[in-house]
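STRUCTURE:
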């Protein structure tokens, strides 16, 4: 072996070992980086999206209070009819324009028991027969016959003979062995609860009907206490009627009034400098206040009720959901009207920018039953 071979071999081996060591160190370095990165990732907390709070549901509005009093469980149309007890016609079937308007049927001079019955149904949102005949409920597709009575059912009677086509109609209140107490119109020329015979030589009960659009009631006689009066001409004590008309009356013609004496005791003169209104109904007891808003100006004023009018004295149109009767152009006394449904004192007219005559919206803002005062 040449003297140069051995040192060369040793050098090659040495260099090979250096390469192996370098590769090992390189691999170790790479492994340490991987381990370090893995460790860092393990210590960094994961990003968690923020938890959005669940919104609380909006609480439902409290239910409207149920009417109280002796007829709290009666249907709405019966409660509305109780409201009308005491109304008296002004002549031979005269003064019933409001009921005619509400019922969409009838004419002055007509016997008005069916007009009144239809009016009370229509104001409660129940389609009537649109006929002034007491017998129309027997054949109208809007009504079904009941096998027995129920409070508020429509009681139909014959008069003269069973084949005459004449009779009477009203709402069932109760009964005893021989009589049916009926709440109706045109009973002795007025609205009252009256005991009528179930059967006689010239008058008798035919049966009971119920609005088809309303769930059938629990049926069965309502027995009247012994000694019950046979004629009730004022609303029973404690009676409360659920309002049926919206609280806000819109597009009502307003006119200015003044220089007269108030219809309310102690009957002072109307004060031009005090905001006041007149509405066509005579309120009993505390009177509500009225907020009047001019349609063109948008300006409002709060007023006292200081007089009765314009035109009519028994037209609480805000209770029935109808328009002011005077808008027909003729009032209940057949006078030509300017179609106004509210009167304003000078102060109220000025505040709402009503110059003699104009359109307003109005609403009750306080009174015996908040926005809907009780009419008695």
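SEQUENCE:
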């Amino acid at each position: 072996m040449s003297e140069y071979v051995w040192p060369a071999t040793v050098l090659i081996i040495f260099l090979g070992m250096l390469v192996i060591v370098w590769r090992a160190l390189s691999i170790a370095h790479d492994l340490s980086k991987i381990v370090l990165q893995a460790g860092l990732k393990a210590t960094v907390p994961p990003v968690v999206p923020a938890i959005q709070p669940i919104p609380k549901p909006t609480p439902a509005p409290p239910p409207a209070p149920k009417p109280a009093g002796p007829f709290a469980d009666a249907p709405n149309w019966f409660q509305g009819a109780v409201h009308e007890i005491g109304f008296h016609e002004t002549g031979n079937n005269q003064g019933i324009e409001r009921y005619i308007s509400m019922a969409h049927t009838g004419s002055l001079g007509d016997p008005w028991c069916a007009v009144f019955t239809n009016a009370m149904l229509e104001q409660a949102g129940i389609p009537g027969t649109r006929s002034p005949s007491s017998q129309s409920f027997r054949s109208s597709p809007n009504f079904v016959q009941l096998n027995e009575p129920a409070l508020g059912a429509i009681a139909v009677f014959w008069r003269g003979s069973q084949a005459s086509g004449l009779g009477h109609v009203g709402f069932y209140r109760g009964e005893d062995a021989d009589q049916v107490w009926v709440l109706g119109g045109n009973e002795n020329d007025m609205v009252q609860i009256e005991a009528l015979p179930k059967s006689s030589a010239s008058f008798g009960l035919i049966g009971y009907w119920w609005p088809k659009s309303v769930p059938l009631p629990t049926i069965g006689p309502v027995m009247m206490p012994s000694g019950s009066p046979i004629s009730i001409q004022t609303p029973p004590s404690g009676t409360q009627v659920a309002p049926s008309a919206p609280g806000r009356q819109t597009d009502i013609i307003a006119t200015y009034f003044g220089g007269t004496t108030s219809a309310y005791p102690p009957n002072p003169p109307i004060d031009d400098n005090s905001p006041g209104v007149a509405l066509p109904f005579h309120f009993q007891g505390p009177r509500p206040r009225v907020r009047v808003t001019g349609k063109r100006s948008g300006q409002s004023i709060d007023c006292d009720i200081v007089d009765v009018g314009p035109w009519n004295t028994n037209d609480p149109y805000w209770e029935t959901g109808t328009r002011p009767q005077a808008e027909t152009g003729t009032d209940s006394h057949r006078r030509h009207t300017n179609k106004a449904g509210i009167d304003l004192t000078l102060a109220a007219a000025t505040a709402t920018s009503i110059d003699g005559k104009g359109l307003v919206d109005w609403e009750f803002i306080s009174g015996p039953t908040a926005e809907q005062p009780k009419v008695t």
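REMARK: The radius of gyration is 41 Å.
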